[in-house]
Design a protein that fits this description.
Elements (H helix, E strand, L loop, with lengths): L2 H21 L4 H34 L3 H26 L3 H34 L1
């Protein structure tokens, strides 16, 4: 990932939003959203290489693929939730952001249940 691109897009988006707030305030949120989407696309495309590398590690070590999949989902849910909450805060919709945050936490909890169950089984096997 080229961090210079991300920084440049972020700064251009922020400056555009600042200028639009004074000239045409209704367009300022669109500049923020557009810059955020472009940054998200750049970041996600770079992340795919990391996911492939971790999948190779899972295949070589024989770890449970379902648990690894759950872990990746949890990380993804956390990042997307944080991104969405930040976007809501930027758009002065903190109340909606808090609800998204709560939904993200509940979704992470539910997604983590197979990992917790597996951990409890492993601990029980060690104790027995």
């Amino acid at each position: 990932m080229d961090i210079i691109k991300v920084i440049g897009i972020g700064l251009v988006g922020a400056i555009a939003a600042l200028l639009l707030r004074h000239a045409r305030s209704e367009y300022a949120p669109m500049a923020v959203i557009a810059a955020g989407i472009v940054i998200l696309i750049i970041t996600l495309s770079a992340l795919s290489d990391v996911i492939v590398a971790f999948e190779e590690i899972v295949d070589k070590t024989g770890l449970n693929r379902a648990l690894f999949s759950s872990l990746l989902k949890i990380i993804g849910i956390g990042y997307l939730t944080e991104y969405s909450v930040s976007l809501c805060n930027d758009l002065d919709c903190a109340s909606i952001g808090k609800k998204i945050s709560l939904a993200g936490k509940i979704t992470i909890f539910l997604t983590a249940m197979p990992i917790v169950t597996s951990l409890i089984k492993a601990i029980s096997a060690l104790i027995s």
